[in-house]
Amino acid sequence: MSTAKIKVLCVDDSALIRDLLTTIINEQPDMEVVATAPDPLVARDLIKQHNPDVLTLDVEMPRMDGLDFLDRLMRLRPMPVLMVSSLTQSGSEITLRALELGALDFVAKPSLGVRSGMLEYASEIADKIRAAARSRPRQARKAAAAPAALKAPLISSEKLIIIGASTGGTEAIRAVLEPLPANSPAILITQHMPGGFTRSFAERLDRLCRITVKEASEGERVLPGHAYIAPGGHHLELARSGANYVVRLHDGEPVNRHRPSVDVLFHSAARHAGKNAIGVILTGMGKDGAVGLLEMRRAGAPTIAQNEQSCVVFGMPREAIAVGGAGETLALDEIPARVLALVAASGRAQRV
Known about the structure:
InterPro entries: CheB-like (IPR008248), CheB_C (IPR035909), CheY-like_superfamily (IPR011006), Sig_transdc_resp-reg_Me-estase (IPR000673), Sig_transdc_resp-reg_receiver (IPR001789)
Main location: cytoplasm
Strand content: 15-25%
Radius of gyration: 20 Å
Helix content: 25-40%
Structural class: alpha/beta
CATH superfamily of the largest domain: Methylesterase CheB, C-terminal domain
CATH architecture of the largest domain: 3-Layer(aba) Sandwich
Number of domains: 2
Largest sheet: 7 strands, parallel
Distance between the termini: 63 Å
CATH class of the largest domain: Alpha Beta
Family: Belongs to the CheB family.
Number of helices: 11
Oligomer: single chain
CATH topology of the largest domain: Rossmann fold
Mean pLDDT: 90
Strand order of the largest sheet: 8-9-7-6-12-13-14
Active site: 166, 192, 288
Low-confidence stretches: none
Order of helices and strands: EHEHEHEHEHEHEHEEEEHEHEHEH
């Protein structure tokens, strides 16, 4: 008995990109392109006609901007959308806005004519379409005032929060960081994201949050009230320099097919922070971070996995729970307060 293929509609004003995506997708045994559209107005009619499972959507198009179309689509007919974005400052900012509006994930536009790396690119697209087809379509987060700041416990610079995420993680990380007070413990974050996007991501969070959010730099001291995001294309590790925690970055081999890798960050936190860290694994496909979270837990760190109901893709948290890495499983909106409560409990235990 054959399983129905994932139906994909590709929307892009470039005929070359439409042809390339069609070729990549139709070569996969479990998916097919049911139609392509040069702009959102054509796409609107094709969605009604074909009822696709996943939409790939260009960011900048004629007749109607990709963001305007996405905004209307997620209000009227929420569905899994994968953005196809240019690797530019402007492209990255627009893409992050698309993720806020409800897009599931994004892929960078390929360099046409460059054959090297095309197999890897095709594999990435196929994996993300499969994840999109299994995901929960979500409507845009309604505009609202910033959430009230949680109260931070008295902390020392020894306390750390370590976060890993992938698909759906940009908005999940935002949901964790926004309620945190300016004097919260230092936070290190690995989000699967290519170079060119992490700086815009950090800058956007910095504007929204009370804590300072920045793209991590090699050798810098890790300070309370700051969140450090792994730069795309580089692994982020925690290290010691005398009495201080510092950031270490390197471009070693991908781990679990990712660079940055969540496991790399979690392993370093287990090694250098032990019970002074709190590990959090959020929404994402695959298994990156599962073994590292288990190592953090074995080193004495409290650990949390996002629950299935609040995940866009319940892949990484599921794997972490399965191997015993998650001490607790919580809804996304419960995580910020729980993390601070764990910090407070740890501080009290150490003072006794």
